[in-house]
Amino acid sequence: MTKIDAPFVAEAGKVMAMLTEAGHQAWFVGGCVRNALLGAPVSDIDITTDARPDDVMTLAKSAGLKALPTGIDHGTVTVIDAGKPYEITTFRRDVDTDGRHATVQFSDTIAEDAARRDFTMNALYAGPDGTVADPLGGLADLQARHVRFIGDAEARIAEDYLRILRFFRFTAIYGNPDDGIDAEGLAACASGLDGLEHVSAERIGAEMRKLLGARDPAPSMASMRSCGALLRILPGAGTGLLTVLIHVERTAALAPDWLRRLAALGVDDATDALRLSRAESRQFEILRNGLQGTETPGELGYRRGGKLAVDILALRAAASERTLVHTVVAEALAGAEKSCPVTAKDLMPTLSGKALGDRLKQVESRWIASGFTLTKEALLK
C-alpha cells in the first residue's frame, strides 16, 4: 500500500472530513499527489468528490468554512480553511469537446474521473489518510518518470490541443532523459498540430514559459521541433543554441530563466505568438540585440543592469561555445553599480538642449572606455 506523507494531508483534514462525514468520497488528486510522491514542492491542493457542487457549498457552510463558486458550472468550488484554498471538483466525465472546451457531466466514480485526465501520472488519487489510489497505472509511470497519455493519445489531444505543449512540458520536468520521449505521444502530437490554431496565444505563452523554465528543457524542445510543434508556434526557431546555453548556465551556476532561453531560439519577435507583456517584449529585444553586440561586460552592466547583462553574456558565451567565467560576471555586476560622475547639471548653463545631450554622451563614452576610472575633473577638461 502506497501512502503520501505530506503536510497538506493533515492540514486539509477538516475539509476532507466535511465531505466524508456526510457520506461522500473525498480524494486529493493530480499535481499535489504526484509531487508529494516525488518529494517535490506542492502548491495547489485539488480535491475531487462525488458530492455535487451545491452540496459542497452547503456542507462547507455547515462546517463554518468559506466557500466560493469559482467554477461551479464545471463542478468546482473553492473552500477556504485557515486561509488556505482548496479547489473541490465533482467527479466528471467528458461528453463532448471542441478541442478547447469540454462539455462535462458529473459522475459518481473515480474511474470515469480519471479517464478524462491527460497523463497517467496526473490520474493519481489519495484518500484522507494519504492512501494512494491508482486506477490507470500512473504510479508505475511516475516511478519510471514516463510521461504517457491516458488511453489513446490522439483522442486525449483532440479533447484539448494545449495538451501537445503540456506533453513536452511534463516530459521536460518529470520525464527520464535517459529513456527519451514517449514515442506514441510524440506521434500523436505531430498528427494534431493543426489543432494548435484553435489554442489562444495566452495559453500557449503560459505553457512555453513553464517549459522554458524547466531545469533542462533542451531535449524536450528538440523533440518539439522535430515533430513540427515548435515551428508552428515560433516559425524559424531552433534549439541548437539552447542546448549549449543550458550547459553554460550550469557551469556558471545561473538559475533557469525562460526569457533568456527564449532569446536563444533564434526568433526575432515572439510578442504576439506568446503574448509577451510590454516589459517582457522590451527585455527580449535587449537580449536578442545584446547577443549580437560588442559591449564590454562592464558597459553591459552599466547600461542594462546586472541581471540582463549576465543573461546577454551567457547568450554570447553559448554562441561562441565557451564558458561564462566568474571574472566576466563580476565585471558586469560591478558595472551595474557604477554611476557616471558627470551629470547634466555639471554642464549647464554653458550647454543646453541637443548640445547638452551630445556632450553628456561623449563624456559618458570616455568614462566607460577608461574602465570607469576617469574622475569628474578629468572628464570636464
Looking at CATH, which topology of the largest domain would you report? Beta Polymerase, domain 2
* Structural class determined from secondary elements: alpha+beta
Q: Biggest β-sheet, characterized?
A: 7 strands, mixed
State the helix count: 22
Helical residue percent?
A: 40-55%
Pfam family, one: PolyA_pol_RNAbd
Domain Poly A polymerase head: 26-148
Family: Belongs to the tRNA nucleotidyltransferase/poly(A) polymerase family.
Protein name: CCA-adding enzyme
Tell me what you see in this structure:
The strands form 2 sheets. A 7-stranded mixed β-sheet has the order 3-4-5-2-1-8-9. Strand 3 and strand 4 (76-81) form a beta hairpin. It has 3 domains: 1-144, Beta Polymerase, domain 2; 255-338, no CATH class; 342-381, no CATH class. The termini are far apart. It has helices at 7-11, 13-20, 31-38, 53-62, 110-115, 138-144, 153-159, 163-174, 183-191, 201-212, 218-226, 229-233, 240-251, 258-263, 271-274, 278-292, 297-304, 306-319, 326-336, 344-347, 353-369, 376-380, and strands at 26-29, 46-49, 66-71, 76-81, 84-90, 92-97, 102-106, 125-126, 132-133. Helix content is 51%, strand content 11%. The chain has 381 residues and is of the alpha+beta class. It is elongated and about 85 Å long. Helix 8 packs parallel to helix 10 (201-212).
Present the secondary structure layout:
Elements: H1 7-11, H2 13-20, E1 26-29, H3 31-38, E2 46-49, H4 53-62, E3 66-71, E4 76-81, E5 84-90, E6 92-97, E7 102-106, H5 110-115, E8 125-126, E9 132-133, H6 138-144, H7 153-159, H8 163-174, H9 183-191, H10 201-212, H11 218-226, H12 229-233, H13 240-251, H14 258-263, H15 271-274, H16 278-292, H17 297-304, H18 306-319, H19 326-336, H20 344-347, H21 353-369, H22 376-380
Parallel strand pairs: 2-5
Antiparallel strand pairs: 1-2, 1-8, 3-4, 4-5, 6-7, 8-9
